[in-house]
């Protein structure tokens, strides 16, 4: 007899939306228990000829790619790594027909150090092929003791080339949230996964950033996580009260609500997605897009609109089955389709495009001046007024230099005569980058009249 299964799952390498529950089943053999669960809970009806296969592995071959069998040892190891640091190479992965797809590479990880990229596909680990094998099996090959090495063969989809890298394993602590203040006082929050810490860490990031002029929320390369966390994250977006529509074989289609946190995003909001934003990321993105609670930037998302459940068998083994399909709250399909952004960008330009648009929108009441192109990295800007000015002590916000996709650049201001100001950046500008030079209406003319309108210009730097 099975005991009730209530453990919540989140694996560092593979983040899957999971509804976890248990059932009591009377059965003499684990294979019969497996057949029972598939027959009653798998998302589609399975033929008797499949269910009569003699081993769990043989049966699972006929199901979808997200349904997986765990031996007792694999299942125990799976739970030993939940929500903890462990030794590995620092990647999030998803099963792929050609091997193991790298969904994201964590900042500062061993994988990043050797140049692995999101979109690469691992085909071999230490000479052992992982093509056609359960992703968990590949994960176990990649893991090992800290300081030991593993040699990985990779198919790079971007160039259709093959490469081999040797990586030194390290203790990995997976991040959940990164945040920073971008130029123009724009709050930026990147969510790497949907786990138990996501809500609290997002609130902490919002508190530390304080009052901002807009938000950019980044789901790029986020492979998913817990469904309850997706409901919580969806609640951060104004007017998003419904999280998703769920369909399965055992109940009527049901719309589930978001879970409202103590804070919500105020002001304009952009949401960044790409082809490796999957599962829970797509759930939130679809709901947000449907309510126009944010403008989506990037590329169409991965298209994993299914949920998996774990069932523990009496011998300690387990099966992960796809049991449900989720849609947007209004019923728009996600699985194998993905979520299309409102503004499509080339890969890698999502943040730059989003930040550029938000800065332009926030400067809509300013006069746009002629752009400067191909300026040198050591450029000093000369600001010439149309009449004589009553210069006093310059303030930090009189003139500002905003890097698109980056932070504000500190300027030193000095008067040159009665109608010119020299603005010198502290440090060189970045080659090939774009900036906004903003002249705020802070000054007063010699006639006592204050500036009535600010102005700005775009600046591009030589590559």
Structure description:
By secondary structure, this protein is of the alpha+beta class. The chain has three domains: 86-172, PDZ domain (Pdz3 Domain); 177-305 and 335-358, 2-enoyl-CoA Hydratase, Chain A, domain 1; 366-461, Immunoglobulin-like, CATH 2.60.40.1220. 19% of the residues lie in helices and 31% in strands. It has helices at 30-41, 48-51, 56-60, 72-80, 110-113, 135-142, 198-209, 227-234, 280-290, 350-362; strands spanning 68-70, 86-88, 91-96, 99-105, 120-125, 128-129, 149-156, 161-168, 170-172, 177-182, 186-191, 215-218, 242-248, 254-257, 269-273, 295-298, 306-312, 318-327, 343-344, 367-368, 372-375, 381-384, 399-403, 408-409, 411-416, 420-425, 434-439, 455-461. Strands 3, 4, 5, 6, 7 and 8 form a six-stranded antiparallel β-sheet that branches. A hairpin with a 5-residue loop joins β17 (306-312) and β18 (318-327). α8 packs parallel to α9 (280-290). The N and C termini lie far apart (68 Å). Mean pLDDT is 90; it is low at 1-27.
């Amino acid at each position: 007899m099975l005991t009730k299964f209530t453990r919540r799952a989140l694996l560092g390498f593979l983040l899957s939306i999971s509804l976890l529950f248990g059932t009591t089943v009377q059965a003499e053999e684990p294979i019969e228990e497996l057949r029972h669960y598939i027959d009653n809970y798998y998302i589609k009806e399975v033929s008797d000829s499949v269910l009569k296969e003699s081993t769990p592995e043989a049966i699972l071959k006929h199901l979808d790619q997200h349904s997986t069998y765990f031996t007792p040892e694999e299942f125990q190891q799976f739970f030993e790594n939940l929500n903890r640091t462990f030794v590995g190479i620092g990647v999030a992965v998803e099963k792929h027909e050609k091997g193991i797809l790298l969904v994201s590479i964590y900042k500062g990880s061993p994988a990043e150090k050797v140049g692995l990229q999101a979109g690469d596909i691992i085909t071999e680990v230490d000479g052992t092929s992982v093509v056609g094998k359960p992703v968990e099996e590949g994960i176990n090959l990649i893991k090992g003791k800290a300081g030991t090495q593993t040699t990985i063969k990779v198919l790079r989809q971007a160039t259709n080339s093959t490469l081999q890298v040797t990586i030194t394993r390290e203790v990995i602590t997976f991040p959940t949230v990164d945040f920073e203040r971008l130029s123009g006082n724009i709050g930026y929050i990147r969510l790497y996964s949907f786990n138990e810490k996501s809500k609290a860490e997002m609130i902490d990031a919002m508190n530390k950033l304080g009052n901002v002029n807009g938000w950019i929320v980044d789901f790029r390369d986020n492979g998913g996580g817990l469904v309850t966390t997706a409901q919580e994250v969806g609640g951060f977006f104004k007017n998003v009260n419904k999280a998703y529509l769920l369909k399965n074989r055992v109940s009527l289609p049901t719309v589930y609500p978001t879970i409202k946190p103590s804070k919500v995003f105020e002001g304009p909001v952009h949401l960044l997605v790409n082809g490796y934003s999957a599962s829970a990321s797509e759930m939130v993105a679809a709901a947000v897009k449907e309510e126009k609670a944010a403008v989506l930037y990037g590329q169409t998302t991965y298209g994993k609109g299914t949920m998996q459940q774990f069932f523990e068998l009496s011998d300690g083994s387990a099966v992960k089955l796809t049991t449900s399909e989720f849609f947007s709250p209004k019923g728009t399909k996600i699985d194998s389709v993905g979520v299309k952004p409102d503004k499509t960008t080339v890969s890698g330009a999502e943040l730059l495009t989003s930040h550029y648009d938000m800065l332009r929108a926030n400067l809509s009441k300013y006069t746009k001046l002629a752009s400067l192109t191909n300026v040198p990295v050591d450029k000093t800007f000369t600001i010439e007024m149309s009449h004589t000015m009553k210069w006093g002590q310059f303030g930090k916000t009189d003139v500002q230099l905003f890097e698109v996709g980056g932070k504000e650049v500190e300027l030193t201001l000095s008067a040159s005569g009665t109608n010119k100001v020299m603005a010198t950046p502290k440090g060189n500008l970045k080659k090939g980058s774009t900036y906004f030079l903003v002249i705020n209406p802070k000054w007063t003319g010699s006639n006592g009249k204050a500036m009535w309108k600010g102005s700005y210009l775009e600046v591009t730097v030589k590559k």
